[in-house]
Fold this protein.
Amino acid sequence: MAQGHPQAYFDSDQVLASSEALDPSRLLAAVPAREGLLVREVEGVGLVAARRIDDFTHAVADLAGVHAIDVVWRENPGELEPLETRAPDFGFLADAPPGVATRLLDAALAGPVVFTGPDPEAWIAWITHALPGGERITFSTAGDEDVRIRVAEGGIDTTEPCELPPSFYARVALELARRGVLLDAVARLEDADGLALAVHGGATDLIAPHQLPLALQLITELAAAGHVHEAARAAAALPLHTALPGTALVLREEPPLPEVIAPEPEEILEAEVVEEADEAPDATEPEPEVEEAEPVDDEFVIRDDEIISVPFEPAVDEEPIAPGQPIPDDVVIEVPFDVEPAEEAAEEPLPDVDAWSNLLSELKTESVTPDESLPELAEPEPEEEVIEEVELGISLAELEESLKQEGRE
């Protein structure tokens, strides 16, 4: 039984009863348009749920932590009583058409969803309990708009099977609902994470092989937080030993490495073997003395201390050549002479300015006499004036008479 929630009873729009701390007039905005259940946000109040049967409406405000779909609603007016709730029953899912439950849940994950069919409150209970924070989801079974889940014609038909493949989250949630552990697992979630839902609900047998590393990480964090029993249950359900359809864990075997074959050494033909000295010479030992070679008595060998004498004869002065005698070819005659330096040409002075002026004036005044040898040019003959004659077509007398008449006029 839930207590402490403000309530009100209405007959149409008339207030029959109300909690002391509640302004019932504000709850009229949450009254459904016709019979059914409506949950919506009311300004100044918060989340309000109202159930209408005929003209009677039972409204509840401040539904913190309570699913409106679980409330036991009053059907007749009377005194205000503490609010009661009941646990949801998901047994109907076993008889539901295949794919309908996961289809509705995936549609609600994506956004607003509209559906139609019998027992709509059971389907709303499934959707709101399968989603984290489902108690805050707005819905209407009376066809009211501006809600997340609405029951109306033209939506998903809950009586027809659905062949759309479900999401991993919807598949895990449906399995946990069948096992009876859905509510506890969803209560531990902050977001709609399918893998986290499987770990918290112990349904790790549904995970795929590629999800195993992350699942192990979540199990470790769960155990470190003190939930050892829950972590052990999730670890025991991991598909390590049992192979379920589509969930078998495939272990990849490392292929054997090929044997390393060492290459055979190449045979070197005609190799010269050099023997190394056993020990290096000691640097401290004195160098052996080099014996000097004895001098060899040989007339063709010149020693360093031998003095060589070169015989030569002094040059003989030649006698001067007497005048009149021929001069031999090998005699060089020297003739002394003095070279006079070349005289530099003296620069001629520029002509006087006055001389240039006189010369120009003479050229201007000088007359040129004609050359009498040149032939005389003939003078051009004058052109004769050509008088054009125009024939007027009248005689002179007639012309004279016409001129006189013009003069009189």
About this structure: The CA atoms of residues 72 and 85 lie 5 Å apart. Residues 212-224 form the longest helix (13 residues).
